[in-house]
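Example record

The entry below shows one chain as it appears in the dataset: sequence first, then structure tokens.
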Amino acid sequence: MGALMRAHDWSTTTIGVREQWPPSFVTLVRIMLNSRQPMFIAWGSDRTLVYNDSYAPMLGSRHPSALGRPFFETWPEVRDEVGALMDQVFAGDPVHMDDLQLTLHRNGYPEETHFAFSYTPVSGDDGVVEGLFCACTETTRQILVERRSLSERQRQRSLLQQMPGFVAVLRDPDHVFEYVNDAYVTITGRRDYLGRGVREVFPELMGQGFFELLDRVYATGEAYTASTLPIRFAGEDNDRFINFIYQPIRDDAGAVTGIFAGGYEVTDQVRSRAALADSESRYRTLFESIDVGFCIIDMRFDDAGRATDYRIVEANPAFERQTGADVVGRWVSEFAPDLEPYWFDLYGRVARTGEPAHCENKADVFGRWFDVRALRVGDPLDRRVAILFSDISERKRMEEALRVMNATLERQVSERTAERNFLATIVERTDIMVMAADLDYTILAINKANADEFERIYGVRPKVGDNMLDLLADQPEHQAQVRASWARGLAGEERTIVEDFGDPARVRPYYEISFRTLRDERGGRIGCYQFVTDVTERLRAQAELAQAQEALRQSQKMEAVGQLTGGLAHDFNNLLAGISGSLELMQTRMSQGRMGDLDRYMTVAQGAAKRAAALTHRLLAFSRRQTLDPKPTNVNRLIADMAELVRRTVGPAIHLEVFGLAGVWPALIDPGQLENALLNLCINARDAMPDGGRITIETANKWMDDAGARKHDLPPGQYLSVCVTDTGTGMSADLMTKVFEPFFTTKPLGEGTGLGLSMVYGFARQSGGQVRLHSEVGEGTTVCLYLPRHYGEADEVEGMHRLAEAERAGQGETVLIVDDEPSVRMLVTEVLEDLGYTAIEAADSVAGLKVLQSDVRIDLLVTDVGLPGGMNGRQMADAGRERRPDLKVLFITGYAENAVLGNGYLQPGMQVLTKPFVLETLAARIKEMTKAFQ
């Protein structure tokens, strides 16, 4: 390399001509050229390559052209692996690697190579790194040899691991575990093996001889093989058995360095052989001692394939006792020449076909009956048959004697049961269905009528010996009904029931069934029997009678309705007479100029009108179509405000107590209707206490869970309860079922309409609640209203203002009145104009909607619900709100339009006023709803 370097033109490189080489560089070059260690120098910014003779072989075909060229022009394929390392060295940090794998193309093809090297930075006089000095060694050959060696060792271990037998490799005189396969761990258990001596791993094997054997094999170098050697591990009660070999492992010099231990566990085989020997011993004992005869025979056949003789190969003592001959090794023709051909044919067929045979037959030659079982054994070509037989001669004699006895008994029974047959005939021919069954539902007796009916309704005909439940196995619903019906009778309960049975697709009649217990001669219960009568027609007649009675009750109810309507007509005529008479007198007095009498007549007319309104409200509440005006209401305050009214109504003989729960929830109800309902309940309570007593009104909060809600017929949730309790006469259970029926009353004719409690019930249900009643005769009655809780604050009830005192309109607000009744429009218009409002009238929904869709100012819409023109009042208001979303609406109604209004639940800015109404109330409501515009 020295000659090559001297001949090289260095002026074309970044190193420059030799005369200008830095001293540090020259020193490195001399050291490198004189070293036998492969070395190179990468100098300057392009890493110009300079190397020695030992490095040249690593370049392959790239030598000598690599001399003086940039490093990565010579080795472009290693830029990714080496580039960063060189950059690190030129930054001043040395690099050392024991194994760097590179793929080089130094000989024209890619080859895997490995190097161990160190990169040392070389600095100039100014301390700046000018180059890199590398001492390296190619380790490719060693790495590949080690890899192949490792691969071979892994292959060998894989083979050992896959071996079905156990394998362990032990090293050194202490027999230290170097390797165990999975089979070894399976047999010996999971332990810490590797790196530990066998005596440390298996202390329990001390004294069992294994350690001594290992020591001998290691010392002598002679292998040891063992078969079915017992071994016992820690925690085990029984020995195991293994076949194994200890094979010495030698080094290249032949010295023993370890032991290979391998083998198999043969515990199951050892135990199987022991069990077989034990079984054979037991078989021989059994063979010798049983009373059943046993022998094995070899069959002889002629040329036609017919069995002609057989020889006794083996026989137990019982065989010889039963045949009375010493037979082993002899042909049967020798000791029983007259044996019937039947036996040869039987055994010959078993020997030929291999089909076992069983028979009972008599061998006349021995004078005995035998129960014989024969089967082929061994190789079929040997035609060998094993025979088991028992002497049944005594049993046959007893059977014959029994047959004679039975014949005599049957004759006697036949004579003695003639009378019973006569009775059975009567039972069989009766129309009453009869059946008897044991405790397992098995039919003991059944007559024709019962069997016919069973088949008619279930489609299957029963007979004695059938199990009823099995007959209905494919009809589970009917099976369950039959089981339930018979179960109580079979349990000993004697009873009579009426029930329907059968498939509705076929027929399902009603039966009257009587069950009676069936007992044996000692009185023990063995089943039951039934008598069944079809009562379908009888029940149908009873149903028709009940239907006729119900029709009669409906007729009586309609009579009560007629009585009620007559009474209502009478009441309304009286009220109308008061109203019309007062109006006529007012007209007369006005023509006479007697204005001072007008107030008296107006008071009479208004009183009659209010009584008529109250009567219509009660009728609407009874029908549950009352138009409610629900408000969030403080029920405690409402009861407190009306307590004095109740006291005056019930009179001084009745003591009133009010218990209002502190913190009682508000309820969303029509407060006027609740007042009416409570007053009705208090009046009923008063009438139930003619001699005086106590009425208690009590409020409470109630939480209804699923069970409580189902009991009260309500959705689960929170409710306010209002209960009215009296100490009166109370009611019977029969009366309590009728009290909420319309027109029902316990008062004398003419003293009650029967609508009071119906109105209470209608109000509660219409409000989303419920009414419950509890009463005991002589103790008193409690009626509770359950009203849904309102989540919010209760409204405060303002007092009534007189029309003359009503506040006037402040800014000339405009109110649209829509009603098809001219008199109503006139009255509302008069009230509005007196209060300073501008009133616009419309007679139907078409005219009203035109106004709402115009540009006219409308501050409030007052409309009837039932209107002509194709739309009702609610629909007209909703259409108007499409153009005027903030429109206030007051519905005035005197009929059952509650559903039209949303069942009492209105949108914001909507209210309802029920006809007839007091004009002061109308004025106050209008002023309240237009207040937002002032």
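Notes for this example: The domain at 429-534 is CATH 3.30.450.20 (Beta-Lactamase). The radius of gyration is 60 Å.
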